[in-house]
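User: Predict the structure for this protein chain, please.
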Amino acid sequence: MDESLLLWTEKYRPKSFREVIGQGEVVKRVEGFVRSGNMPHLLFAGPPGTGKTTLALVIARELYGEHWRQNMLELNASDERGIDVIRTKVKDFARTKPLGKVPFKIIYLDEADALTREAQQALRRTMELYTQTCRFILACNYSSKIIEPIQSRCAIFRFKPLPPEAVRKLIRHIAREEGLRVDEDAVEALIAISNGDSRRVINILQSSAALDKHITADMVFQVAAVARPKAVEEILTLSLQGDFLRARKKLLDVMLDYGLSGVDMASLFHRTLLQLDLPERARARLLSLLAEAEFHMVEGSDEYLQLEAFLANVALEGEKLK
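Assistant: Here is the predicted structure, written as structure tokens:
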């Protein structure tokens, strides 16, 4: 287990369309473009870890075979986001002819929503001028941050978080390949923590495997620095029962034990509130109060004070329910 996280991620990156999991309809449509040999510019939008970069690399492998690296330029727009990058690197690559039978090269721009508007305008013009020799694949988390002229030039594909079955399949595959024993509780914990992000699953699995080849739920929660759902539920239950001081102490213990920030804790409260057995009006009021506390924390207020105020409001809501 001495490989870096990057190498583990690369090791389990799919190499063909049939290996890509969790994005069935998207993969089917993209494969149709590649098989026809007539591919437009593509825009991949969706949460991180859902396969956008992987699918772009699969496209390049399928089109160019062993020469895919010479025919593909991969840039991360969040690092190189200015207009100069578009005018130099991108334009220089776009104006050269590809190697092999495919009549165009591929430029892959990751995190394209980080490009400045000026850079996006320059990119729009480059996409127009070099359509004969180049195809662009843009990947972003938020397609709304891509200017309309670029969106209209692309076929747009929206990626969804991986469904639980796809995550479970990935975990079993890695466990089999690496000789790991993963408890069923640990699998469920990985599914809950990852929120459909395959990269997060792989990183947590490797970090856990570096400690022990028998991976338990406790180990997963510790490595991911996420509190157990039962501990978070206990905090809210104590508050609802009117035991504010014990709830406050439990909150501080959980935050210190797992190294959680106030915003992390607010996210866990949000998930737990949706699952608690509460009247809908009470749930709605508590969610509204939690959103207000989270907003104040982001704006710079003391996180402990805001979370304690939220628990106080939960206790008052519990009094009303009684």
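The first strand starts at residue 41 and ends at 45.
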